[in-house]
Amino acid sequence: MNVRPFAAVRPPRGLETEVTAPPYDVLNSEEAKKMAGEKSLLHITKPEIDFDPILPDHDQRVYDEAVKNFKLWRSNGWLVQDPKPCYYVYAQRMGERTQYGLVLCANTEDYMTGKIKKHELTRKDKEDDRMIHVRIQNANIEPVFFAYKDNPELLSIMMKSASGTPEYDFTDENGFGHTFWVIDSQSEIDRITEIFSSEVDAFYVADGHHRTAAAARVGAEKKSLNPNHTGDEEYNFFMAVCFPESQLRILDYNRVVRDLNGHSEEEFLDLLGKDFEVSLASAGEPYRPSGLHNFSMYLSGKWYSLTAKPGRYDDSDPIGVLDVTILSGLVLDKILGIKDLRTDNRIDFVGGIRGLGELSRRVDSGEMKVAFALYPVSMTQLMDIADSGNIMPPKTTWLEPKLRSGLAIHLLG
User: Fold this and answer.
1) Is the terminal CB of the chain with fewer CB neighbours within 10 Å at N or C?
2) CA distances from 156 to 4, 116, 195, 217, 242 (A)
3) Within 10 Å of residue 315's Cβ, how many Cβ atoms?
C-alpha cells in the first residue's frame, strides 16, 4: 500500500476537548447546534448550525461558512499545522477494550485500482456533498476508518509510541477515551512507509465509504486539471486511521418492524417455524443471540430464540451465509413483505451500542411491533466479502467508538 506521513493541522495541546467533535454524520443539525461550543469543529463540519433558522446543508451559504470558519480557526490558533510530516497513533477506549490505529495518508490511486476494498454501496448525492466539502476546503477535515491484516512490526512500532507521553488524552461526552501520540522520528516514519509498501496488500473500508469515494474523486479531478501531474502531489493522498483487524470489534446492527404484515401473532410464529427452530427464551431479561444463525426476537413482551434450520442458507456463499441475508430473505421479505431495506418505512435499524433494551423499548412503546437482534458480523467476514468483490446488504456493520474529528486534518496542498 502506498502511504505517506503528513503535517497535520490540529488543536494545540489543551484545546483538544474544545475543538474536537463527533463525526458529521453522527449528530443531526439540531443536536450539533446544542453541542457546539465556540471553538468546536462542528462549525466547520456542520456549518448550517451557524444560521438561525438552521439552513439545509446543501445551501451554498453553508459551504461558504465552512470555508470561512476553517480559515478563522487557523488564524485564531485553534488549529495549527505541525512543522513536518509525521505519522500518528490514535487509541480509542470503550469500557475495558482499547484499539490502536495509525493516522496516515492513503493513496487515491489505490482506491481506484481496488487495493482499498469496500463492502458497501455509496449514494451519489452523499458522495457529491462530501466531495464539495473536500474541494472547497482543499483538505480532508475528517478521517476515514480503515482496517488492514495484522502486521506484528507495525503493532510493535505503535505500542512503542503509545508507551510515551501522549499529545492528547481525554474522555468524550459518551465516555469513550481518545489518546493521540506523534511519531516524528524519521527512521520510524521511513520504516512504517516501507512496511506498508512491502507487506500490507490491502486496506478495507470499515467506516467512511462516502468520504473515501469523495476523496478519490477530488484527487482525480485535480489530476485532470494539472498538466504537470506527477502522482506525488498531496491531492493524491487522503487521511485515514488504519487499525489492525484483530483490534476491531463489529457490533450488532438490529432491526425493528412496525407491523406483522397482516398476520396474527400466532400465524407469524407458525410461519417462522417453517424455517427456524423457535423457542421462548425469556419473558423478562433480553435474550442475546448465542452465535451465527441464531437470532433473538422480541414480540409482545417476550424474547424468543430463532435458529435457522439446516439447508436454509449457503455457508459457501460469503453473502448468503450472513445473518442479515438469512433474516432478510426468510423473515423480512418472505413473511413481512419488506423487499427493500433502504426505502421501506416499515423497518428501522438500531445500532448495537444502544443495547437490546432499546429494541424492547421501541416495541413496548407501541411504535414497533417486533424486533430482531443479530449476532455481529466478524472482521473476517467483512474482509472475505470485500476480497470477493461482493457488497454487504444495507445496515450490516456498526463500529464503535466513532473516530473523533479534529484530532488531525490533512491539507491537499
Assistant:
1) C
2) 19, 24, 12, 34, 15
3) 10
| The pLDDT of residue 123 is above 90 | no
Bridging pattern class, strands 139-140 and 250-251: unpaired
Q: Are residues 232 and 271 in the same domain?
A: no
Query: Do 151 and 234 lie in a common domain?
Result: yes
Edge-to-edge strands of the sheet including 370-373?
276-282, 302-308, 294-299, 370-373, 253-257, 347-351
Residues 61 and 179 in one domain: yes
Residues 301 and 346 in one domain: yes
Q: Is residue 232 part of a domain?
A: yes
The count of structural domains within the chain is 2
> pLDDT tens, 184-233?
999 999 999 999 999 999 999 999 999 999 999 999 999 999 999 999 99
Residue 265 sits in the same domain as residue 241: no
Tens digit of pLDDT for each residue in 138-159? 999 999 999 999 999 999 999 9
Task: Report yes or no on whether pTM surpasses 0.85.
Answer: yes
The verdict on 213 and 329 lying in the same domain is no
* Residue 338 domain boundaries: 253-375
Determine how many CB atoms are found less than 10 A away from the CB of residue 164: 11
Task: With respect to residue 393, please indicate whether it lies within any of the assigned structural domains.
Answer: no
In a domain, 386, yes or no: no
Instruction: For residues 110 and 192, give the distance between their C-alpha atoms in angstroms, rounded to a whole number.
Output: 17
One DSSP character per residue, 319-332 reads TTTSHHHHHIIIII
Mean pLDDT on 304-330? 93
C-alpha cell at 246: 484483530
Residue with cell 502511504: 3
Give the pLDDT confidence score for residue 244 in this predicted structure. 98
Same domain, 310 and 224: no
Read off the C-alpha cell for 352.
448495537
